[in-house]
């Protein structure tokens, strides 16, 4: 797929971090980009900065997602590219633990588990079905029958979940696990699907650690085998663009982590 001004793209979570870097990289190639994000302040700012369209979207809400795609398509036409970067988690703790002061047994809150899966897994799937349904209305771009491409964001926590990460690990593992199935589901329609599992990336939440706790920041950098630093969002964007461009890249889950393997804690 040639990434140029003839194409439209939607990037969820595109106001900051990995999504913002990907939206910026796509715009640099001339692709018409719609940024989906909950935060209107950062979203409008990023969109104005790179010449994109901002759509205030909550990926956990079906009507919000549908309205976002409608707005993006009215401005740019039907997208052929979707990059899912919206996600996150809540501090949930262990599956079951003991209160350090009282010794009381504490269960992980099911509602927090469901919320994390709702944001990451269900939110990603919701946007995939909306985008893919639209892509099916397009004619193929090439003799291969290429109609579009989707890139999802997982995490190395999908494979190396640390203590206290049960909900986040499950949510990201589900994204990784459904990648090949969705790629196979959409194969007859010429839509490719791949997923990136980032390691420790220098996104705004992590950059705040550098200011609050420089020793922890240094330790995080030292934990990466090579290069001994956090990943740059631009490196994520570069891999996403490769997955979009390369027509034989399909059904893959790829770690982007400097060879790190996360310890239990």
UniProtKB/TrEMBL annotation:
PROSITE patterns associated with the record: ADH_SHORT
Source organism, top-level taxon: Bacteria
Gene3D superfamilies (alphabetical): NAD(P)-binding Rossmann-like Domain
GO-annotated molecular function: oxidoreductase activity
Pfam families per the UniProt record, alphabetical: adh_short (PF00106)
Keywords associated with the record: Oxidoreductase
InterPro entries attached to this UniProt entry: NAD(P)-bd_dom_sf (IPR036291), Sc_DH/Rdtase_CS (IPR020904), SDR_fam (IPR002347)
UniProt record similarity statement: Belongs to the short-chain dehydrogenases/reductases (SDR) family.
Protein's name according to its UniProt entry: SDR family NAD(P)-dependent oxidoreductase
């Amino acid at each position: 797929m040639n990434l140029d001004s003839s194409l439209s793209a939607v990037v969820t979570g595109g106001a900051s971090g990995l999504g913002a870097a990907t939206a910026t990289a796509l715009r640099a190639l001339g692709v018409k980009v719609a940024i989906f994000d909950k935060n209107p302040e950062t979203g409008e700012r990023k969109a104005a900065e790179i010449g994109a369209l901002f759509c205030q979207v909550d990926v956990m809400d079906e009507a919000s997602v549908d309205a976002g795609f409608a707005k993006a398509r009215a401005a740019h036409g039907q997208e052929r590219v979707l990059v899912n970067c919206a996600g996150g988690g809540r501090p949930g703790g262990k599956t079951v633990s003991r209160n350090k002061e009282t010794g009381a047994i504490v269960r992980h809150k099911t509602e927090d588990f469901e919320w994390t899966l709702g944001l990451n897994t269900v939110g990603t799937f919701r946007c995939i079905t909306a985008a893919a349904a639209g892509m099916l209305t397009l004619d193929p771009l090439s003799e291969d029958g290429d109609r579009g491409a989707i890139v999802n964001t997982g995490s190395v926590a999908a494979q190396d979940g640390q203590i206290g990460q049960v909900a986040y690990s499950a949510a990201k593992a589900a994204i990784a696990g459904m990648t090949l199935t969705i790629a196979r589901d959409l194969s007859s329609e010429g839509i490719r699907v791949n997923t990136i599992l980032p390691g420790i990336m220098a996104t705004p939440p992590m950059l705040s650690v550098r200011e609050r706790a420089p020793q922890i920041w240094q330790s995080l950098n030292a934990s990466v085998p090579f290069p001994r630093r956090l990943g740059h969002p631009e490196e994520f964007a570069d891999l996403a663009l490769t997955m979009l461009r390369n027509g034989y890249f399909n059904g893959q889950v790829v770690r982007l982590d400097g060879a790190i393997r996360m310890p239990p804690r």
